[in-house]
Amino acid sequence: MDPYEYQFENLSRNSLHWHNKASDLFTSARVLWKAMDNGHAIECWSTYKMLMGLSFELLFKAIAIQRKLTFSATHQLVNLANSAQLKLTNDEKEILKILTEYILWDGKYPVPHKKTHLENHWKHENKVAYDKEKHGSLTIEKGNNKLDLDELAIIWRKYSDIYMLEYSK
After folding, report:
1. pTM of the model
2. Residue 81 CB neighbour total at 10 angstroms
3. What is the pLDDT of residues 59-77, one digit of tens each?
4. Which letter does DSSP use for residue 143 in this model?
5. CB 66 within 8 A of CB 166
6. Spatial CB neighbours of 61, under 8 Å, sequence gap ≥ 6
7. In the chain, which ranges are E strands?
8. How far apart (Å, rounded) are the C-alpha atoms in residues 135 and 35?
9. CA–CA separation, 131 vs 1, rounded Å?
10. How far apart are CA 100 and CA 49, in angstroms?
11. 78 and 95 in contact (C-beta within 8 Å)?
12. CA-to-CA separations, 8 to 3, 11, 91, 119, 130, in angstroms, rounded
């Protein structure tokens, strides 16, 4: 067997390799978050969310590989979690839909292919990431931190722990 073919086949089926790459992406998102959160003069929110989304993508694929399940070549995070037979909460589904858009376009491109994608993405993110509070006749939107590192890390670790528990068996 050709050594490249051997490595390709081996790495394609090695769930730990996929989990390690997911961890690398998660760590990269965390480094970027810390730099932005510590008052450095950088604003890379879209890149941070793209890296978080990619880390979930590879985490779900690692679980599917470990469980010997098939998954389609997609970036749709909810679909990948379903392929890995993970039970997402409704809140997690909504967050993962937002992160999917960052993988598909918002982390890489200034605009999507269609105006409706931009409009739908922004409206959906606004609905998930902000809570509305009534103050008399005014409605104020207040950020709820659902896309912040601390909140996303809880979800990421939940599924990483599932992977690690199954891997250690």
Report:
1. 0.94
2. 23
3. 999 999 999 999 999 999 9
4. E
5. yes
6. 18, 71, 80, 84
7. 130-135, 138-143
8. 34
9. 57
10. 9
11. no
12. 8, 5, 36, 40, 43
